[in-house]
Amino acid sequence: EAKRTGRGRHARFHGALEASARYRRLIETDLREAIARRELFLHYQPIVRAEDGATVGYEALLRWHHPVRGPISPLDFIPVAEETGMIDEIGTFVLHEACREASRWTSDRTIAVNLSPAQFRSSALAAQVAAALAASGLPAGRLELEITESVLLDASSNNLALLRQLKQLGTRIALDDFGTGYSSLSYLCTFRFDKIKIDRSFIREICDSREALAVVQAITGLSRSLGIATTAEGVESAEQAACLRREGCTQLQGYLYGRPVPADALPERAGAPIRLEA
Ligand code: C2E
Ligand code: MG
Ligand code: MG
Ligand code: MG
């Protein structure tokens, strides 16, 4: 009986693995075509000043509309892009697209772009960012690059040097998803970040969990002492926002202020000159 149960369990597990491997292969094959077919595009989500709710910038979030499967989450296809090396081409597309978009806005709001740790494998990363800035004419100070701590995890790599090159260009650097993973405080001494983004998992619990609140208090307190801005991710309710304001969090982002939307839905496009296609 035990044996049968065990085998059954194994069979099901094996099936799930096969299915996910198959899914990955499908994604991989189709992703190779996706850029050329213009299936990848960006959505933009506002980031507001905690004080008064004024929009200070937008985060660019990658979207893939598959012709047959419909929308596929970046959480599903970015890992495949990272494993296969396609992340370089995709990352370059995102940088160029986001900078070009922000350069045509009627405001001087910032644009935040997510960088995968896998993009740091290329020593040309800073040159790629510089090229996107030059091609679009966007001032470097309006570009914010979001990285996760895993970029700094591998002490033997030259990622820190690459990060300093990016900073040298004049871009701002934000530490994304802070509070998850290792969240070693030593990273905050190793590199001078311009901003810490507090992970959504803490914001979700902030009104109900003393522990989540304590973590948020620790992060905002530390950031204040270090002179670093903080953005709370995933703010969905006015109660969460009030609590974050009380803790001195400087910026808020989440569905309460706006979902990620296509570029042509942004208010900064309103007065933009109409482009005549040749
Ligand atoms: P992230 O950089 O932490 O982005 C925030 C995620 O939270 C986004 O999910 C956003 O849509 C979602 N979000 C924002 N406000 C709320 C809220 O109030 N409630 C909830 N439940 N969710 C909210 P999304 O767009 O699915 O992206 C997921 C992750 O995929 C991103 O997390 C980022 O790590 C990655 N990603 C997205 N675009 C890119 C990209 O262009 N390049 C790279 N390398 N990674 C990207
Ligand atoms: Mg991000
Ligand atoms: Mg984040
Ligand atoms: Mg997050």
UniProtKB/TrEMBL annotation:
<protein>
    <submittedName>
        <fullName>GGDEF domain-containing protein</fullName>
    </submittedName>
</protein>
<feature type="domain" description="EAL">
    <location>
        <begin position="24"/>
        <end position="274"/>
    </location>
</feature>
